[in-house]
Amino acid sequence: KEIEQFKILTIFNVLLFPAPVNTEGISQPTPVMMANTGTTVTLKCFLSEKTQNEPVVWYKQSVGQMPLLVGSAQRFWSSVLYNEFNNSRFIVHNVSVTFLLFISNIQSSDEAFYFCGVRIVYEIRFGNGTYLLVKGTLSTRITCISIYFCDLYH
What we know:
Blueprint: H1 2-16, E1 26-27, E2 32-35, E3 41-47, E4 56-61, E5 68-73, E6 80-81, E7 90-95, E8 98-103, E9 112-120, E10 123-126, E11 130-134, H2 138-143, H3 147-153
Parallel strand pairs: 2-11
Antiparallel strand pairs: 1-3, 3-8, 4-5, 4-9, 5-6, 7-8, 9-10, 9-11
């Protein structure tokens, strides 16, 4: 129960009071996305003209957990998926300045923050992230106590 309360507080704090991130050259325009289990989502990341040829990565970070590398891609190269994400549910696709992560057959374990990053020499510049809320989970029910989120994401 304490872990669920910690998750909920963390989600609220990140969504309502985002920390400044060096997002020069990268943008994730959707801070929260809601999905039903079994459906497919497309997480979007946009690069600047300056960064479009640099290697790009997607990370998944569940609340209270270390980030996990989902996949990477670079313009004119095939994308790569890593470890438990190297399966048919996950697809990374790069088209010009748009970098997409497709997740099919959504499961409750997919609920997490997803961060897109562009690697420039020895630095990774991250977007602000997208929180994927899976309907029916405890955090979804608690988040919808706030009329703001219920109106926008239902």
